[in-house]
Amino acid sequence: MYTLKYVWRNVRRNSVRSLLTVLSVGFSLALMTVLYGFLASTDTYRQEASLSNRIVVMNIQGFAGSLPISAVDDVRRTKSVAAAVPLAWYGGAYQDERMPFATFATDPAAFFDVWPDYTIPQEQLKAWQNNRQGCIIDRRIAERRGWSIGTRIPLKSSIYPFPLDLEISGIFDSPKNTDSLYFHWDYLNEGLRQVSFPELDNAGTVFARVESKDDMTGVIKAVDDRFGSSDTPTRSQTEAAFAKMFADMLGNVQVLIRNIGLAVVFSLSLVTANAMAMAMRERVTEIAVLKAIGFSRGRVLLLVLGEAFLISMLGGVVGVAVGCVFLQAMNQAIPQFFPLALNELAGLWMTYGLIAAAFLGIVSGIVPALQAARLSVINGLRRIA
Amino acid sequence: MTESIVQVINVSREFRRDQITIPVLAGMNLSVDPGGYLALMGPSGSGKTTLLNLIAGLDRPTSGSVIVCGQDLGRSSETELAKWRSRHVGFIFQMYNLIPVLTAWENVELPLTLTSLSRRERDEHVRTALQVVGLGDRMDHYPRQLSGGQEQRVAIARAIVTDPDLIVADEPTGDLDAKSASEILDLMQRLNQEFQKTIIMVTHDPHAAARASRTLHLEKGVLVSEVSSDRTQKVAP
User: Fold this and answer.
1) Burial, A246: exposed, middle or buried (Cβ in 10 Å; 0-12, 13-18, 19+)?
2) Is position B14 within any domain?
3) Which pTM was predicted?
4) Which domain holds residue B91?
5) Are strands A180-184 and A102-106 parallel, antiparallel or unpaired?
6) Which of A3, A108, A276, B161 sees the fewest Cβ atoms within 10 Å?
7) Are A293 and B93 an interchain contact pair (Cβ–Cβ within 8 Å)?
8) Which residues of A touch B113 (CB under 8 A)?
9) pLDDT band at residue B17 under the 50/70/90 scheme
């Protein structure tokens, strides 16, 4: 208790310096919490996808190409395919928001056969299927925006010259936040026909559920073989591989983010170490007195290390708290990039942030602590006496 | 015959600066009986603080032996010396050297944190030590709230709180006005006479040295003369 009190008083001795150090640690760890929270979100999608037995069929040119709607039936007819739907990215802008959430054109009749892990009340599903301008949204969007069944949603696209006038027919639940809206593929295609859009009957990609995970490799080969000699050869892959492809598109950014995080921690350890070294230089005589009256090297080392640790942990608590507030705000504002809510991240990132703070405390304190522990009592006392 | 609490036997101490060896003490012999009050005097650089540091276990001799409270300090490791100092030696410094973020009470309690005493026993020791030095009413004051004389009293309380066998004082009145210096010297004399504490004090002040029962004069690292309380003077061979 006495030692803790002494360490705490030492932290408060130069309160401005300590406060600035705490804030610099806090700010940087807040930044790290947000950046790593973003990476965790992308990793989570990949992990989730690895559990599914869905495959994604896309044009061999990737997102630059497309598949004809007839490809959906071809995929459905493939052995071991349980269900398949088109999934065309609409890129809807809502009012002034350029990308408020993900918007896809699909087939309401088979959608929940491909995603059986999503749930929706039967009457809402029927209403969606029967309403050409109907759509379904993730419950998190509905809650965030206060939308309910019947709410009209006008959307514009930067890809297609046909604006949508949608009405919410259903609200679905999913294990993780999809932040998505799904509407009738037919409605989009018919609208595009009316405005004489040249690329009609475009399915975008095809998502299919395979009866068993063991059949996925065979189905992928069969689909790609079937389309191999057509006008639109395909590249099929598991949903996990598709998610990984997305993550790989961010690959360099991920490495960059991780390295920035590490660089921040490293540079901070130097800042904190400098603050600690300054504090120790001012206290050389005091440390010599402690050693004179019998404090061992180990005890002096722990006192200094404890001070650095405490400063860093205070910064860590501040940083993680601020980071979590930011993550929550990001999850609310741009869930398509931060799909995980705070309660899905908090435990993990609080732990990581505090471990980083503890690491920072020990690394930044170790050199000044060793210097203090090795200080010659006589030289220390001679500084003033 | 009483066994000496301090025995300095043919001690030399040299320091190295770059390639140069500087002899500070040469062939020093000294013994101090329990309950003695010894003043070390001499000009700057005469080796008196070095001798005090050797006796207090803060330094080791280049050659010879320093045996204090039965412990051969030259043969002890740094860890052993730290533990030994906490049990046997109380320190009084010229600049008091109190910890500024701790109150008078907490400063006095500091050496007791190295012992296995219970909280209650520690409190009793601290209260007693502060009362001995006459600061029972300043327990919660921080060093900056005390006068120089009061700070030195707290330092003395810190030095005696573990009930050490030996108190070493390096210019304990060097930073005080005459009145405060006199009060501190009275207190040290009381510790010696009433509580039978062995005291070794380095001083430039003849008035301070006059309070000791024995005064040694050093010059250039050797003992040149000794004056006893009965004012008899011996010239070192």
Assistant:
1) middle
2) no
3) 0.72
4) 35-61+77-235
5) parallel
6) A3
7) no
8) 2-3
9) confident
